[in-house]
Amino acid sequence: MAHLLIDWFLSAVALIVVTKILPGIQVDSFGSALIAALVIGIVNVTVGFLLKLILLPFAILTLGLIYLAVNGFMLKLASEFVPGFRVHGCSTAIFGSILLSIVSYLLTRVAGF
Asked: What pTM, to 2 d.p., does this model score?
């Protein structure tokens, strides 16, 4: 249970870091970042899983590049549900999802998870 809470906290911190690097993504407060991290996780587990399953043939043809667009769409979709979290534009969502993955990975490695 503690591992999930720490992972959730690190995801929110990663989202704050991404907002500082990428100007098209905005988070009003750390509370909004916590809620956004939770919603991003839920959207990825539900809608993201279904889209990735449906688009598997295209992923094979594009060598997985379609998943960059899917992850960007998931980030943009999560921003529609969370007040205080905004993603402006599709390209920003795609670059934001890539950057969020990298920052999350680095934070979890630094934290030792």
From this structure: 0.88
